[in-house]
Each structure stands twice: as C-alpha cells, then as structure tokens.
Amino acid sequence: MGEYKLVVWDVDGTLLNTSDGIIASAKYAIDRFGLEIPGDDVMKTYIGPPIQDSFARTLPVDEQMAKDMADVFRERYKSEDLFKAYPYDGVISLLRELQANGIKQAVATYKRQDYAESIVEHFGMSCYMDAVCGSDFAGNLTKADIIGNAIAAVGICDRKRIVMIGDTVNDSLGAAKMGVDFVGVSYGFGVWDDTDVVSLAADVNDIRMILLGKE
C-alpha cells in the first residue's frame, strides 16, 4: 500500500454501526407487507447492500414488490431510524488525523444521497469530508459508480494514490472496477474468506497502521 492522497470511506459497517436503525426499518417494512420476518442472521445481511436487493434476495417477492417495500423502508428510516447508529471506536480521531496529514477524504455509500449527507453531518464527520456521495433516489447506481462520483468530486486523478475502505465484497469489487486499492474491515457486517484478495483491518487502529504507518 502506497502513500495515499484520497481515502474513500463506506459508511455502514465501516464508519458507523448502523445495524439497529436499518434492521428496525427493514422489519417494519416486512411486517407492513404481511411477510414473516427472517431470523437475526439473515437480517444482519441487510446492512450495507441496496435494501430492495436484500428484500428480493431473502423474501418471496417479485421485483416490483421489493421496490414497494424499499419505499416503505426509506420513509420509516428517514423519519424514525436514520440516527440509530454510532461511530466505531477511534473513527473520529482517525478522520481528524488523516485530515491533519493533508489526506483528502470522501464517503461512498449505498445510502441515498440525502440520507448520506444527513448521517455524516449528524455524527460530526462532514467537516473531515471533501465529498459525500450516495445512491440516487431510484437506487440504480452501483458501488463503482458511487466511488467514481466521489473520486470525481474530490478531483484526485492518480488512482494509485486512492484507497477505498469498506466491509463488504461489493466495496471490494467497486474499488477494483475503479482501479483503486482496497482495505477491508473485518469488524463490520461483511463476510470475508480466503478468496477475497484484500488487506484486512480488524479495527480502526489497523486502518491507521495501513494508512499512516503508525499506531
């Protein structure tokens, strides 16, 4: 890993533990449509990916119903559950330290753009970010698209000086498609195996070591 000029952060499972809010809103939407709520292990997989994809993957619903459920989820999440989250230990101090070292930072998340801006602001992270990029309202953007938007917004052209940090394979694949380095975090909600060619960070201090070479 080289000396980076831009760090692109995922949100769910990387900067913030957002599990309580996402799961609460997902259960609300599932119940509204009269479906059986999956077990905890399945519900945990809802954290990170586009919510309509999670509904379609785990429930007996067609594409349109998954989209309708996603609309219910988003309304509930925005009004009740968006801020049911907390930063992982050491995150804020690391953001501050990276900024002090002249490293640009951005967010690239599957969260809808307005939700992304609100949650980053609410938890005091916006002052460290040079760009906050989320999904479109229809949820059509891929993770690579969102990472690309973040890179373009900051204006760093040398892809070798950019690293994406996230907790899922979607983050890893998006980074690979955009030609940037990737650091996976094992403290989030993704599942890594030996076939995932990434650098893994067990905690925020590991990320600090990778990016700055110091504890």
Automatic annotation (TrEMBL):
Q: Which InterPro entries match?
A: HAD-like_hydrolase_sf, HAD-like_sf, HAD_2, HAD_sf, PGP-like_dom2
The organism's place on the tree of life at top rank: Bacteria
Q: Name one GO cellular component term.
A: cytosol
Q: Tell me a Gene Ontology molecular-function term this record carries.
A: hydrolase activity
User: Can the keyword Chaperone be found in this entry's annotation?
Assistant: no
Q: Does the keyword Hydrolase apply?
A: yes
What name is this protein filed under?
Answer: HAD hydrolase-like protein
Q: Which organism is it from?
A: Anaerovibrio slackiae
